[in-house]
Amino acid sequence: MLIFTAVAVFVTLIIFLLIHFTPYPPVSEMKFARESLSQAGKNRADTYSKKLYTEAESYYDSALVTWQQQNKRFIYFRDFDRVLVLANLSLEKADEASVNSLNSTSSLKTKLKQKIDSLNELVSEINKLFTTYPLTSETRSRISKGKILLEEAEIIYKKGQYLQANRKLTDAEYLLTYSYDDATTHLKNYFKSYSQWKNWVDKTINDSKIKGDYSIIIDKFSRKCFIYLNGIRKWEFEVELGTNWVGDKRIKGDKATPEGMYKIAKKFDSRKTKYYKALLLDYPNEEDKAKFKSEIAKGSLPESAKIGGLIEIHGNGGKGIDWTEGCVALTDNEMDVVFKITKVGTPVTIVGSMVNLEKIVNR
Amino acid sequence: MKNKVLMGLAAIAMVAVLSSCGKKPQVEIDATNAAITAAQTAEAAVYVPAEFAAVQDSMKAIMADITAQESKLFKKFGPAKAKLATTLTLANKVAADAAVKKEEVKKEVETSLTAVKAVIEENKTLMAKAPKGKEGAAVLEQMKTEMTTIEASVAEAQGAFDKGTYMDALNKVKAANERATGINTELKDAIAKVKGKGKPAAAPAKK
Fold first, then answer.
1. Between A and B, how many residue pairs show a Cβ–Cβ distance under 8 A?
2. Residues 6-45 of B with CB under 8 A from A
3. Residue B194 pLDDT > 70, yes or no?
């Protein structure tokens, strides 16, 4: 009986010692690390704080592997210190990733909203300035592609996929700003002649006042024909121009509407023109001829180039698009008015714009 | 005396049995991991991300439980086995849900593609009827360029659809639809305006 009791006590003691001195793995720490990782995932740290999140995951996986390796050792020789360190590192990185992700998401969201708003403003600006401006088909196509990418970015943004939205916005921004810059540079170059146009306009209105007669001013940018009597504006009509209306006419066949101070050279009623009624201008005038000769001399135009002519104000307009070969088209009803009040010698001044670019951009 | 020795041996045997009775449920682990991989292949991360993340979290917790049991002298894998069975079922459900969701998105893309193509065709008809006076024709020219871009975008969406990347296709087709519908409204408004106005005034207004 004594021996049995001794054996039982011995076995119990052994079991107690085995249990008591067994090293304990960091179960709670691993649980906390796992929960933090899960929370970081919910906060989309895998996307918005990828580096930290990957580090946190890597520490957790290493902790688990180290733990499993220690389990293979004899129970007394196990050491979970490294597991504890790795679990704590995982927890720390996961928490950091969570905070970082929330901050990044929030600031990215704000940044993207601002970018979307500013690009929408840019689209409005493009529509305002360039709807009737003869942009190249490539530029129009780029603008159109930019608009659709902006639309796509907005859809993705609303779904909360900010990185993907950002990529789309970057592409849209490139296409839209590039096109806008390209078009405005072109426009600015065009408006370099503004001071000269202003002088012509002032002189034309003044002449109308002094002579007490009619004068016509064509504003190409606003597509308007203004008729003055005694220096006072009496009529205002919409006009249609040559398809390549931006810039002065340089050579025959360039489909540009010339800029300068002209006079009506001839009047054609409906029997003498296919455009209802027409007023032939004295293009090219002396200034045009001198400019043309100078361009030939400089070599900016080939020697075989011709200056062109037969620039008219005529009817058959109202198509809503620039379609002429360089002439100014009015509707037949409007042409009746202009034809009636003008005579051979009536001044016709054609300018790029009567309003400066700053005012156009800001209106 | 003989009995006492036998009892002692029995006690030692019992300790040995208790300390080694739990066997790591490797078969169940492999089966659950396979189910999770299948869910991943079914694009669960794309179509049901929250549910898929829950399954992954659950598997991580189970593996930690099993490792904790392996550290013990008296191993007990019963609860882990039960959890593995639940997670396996959940992973299978997530895979099935992902397939259902993917099919829903696929159908949505198909419907949207049909719808946007119809709007594009309608726009082409409306363009022929739209007023061309004033700046109308210039605006129509611009719309034509936009329609070309929209058609290219629809083609891209169709390409994404054919490749099976339905979410991408859906975003593209929605954007195309927004633009096409915008143009459709503009065209209808312009046509209605002209109809409402009747014929334009015969003589220009004197300023």
1. 131
2. 7-8, 11-12, 15
3. no
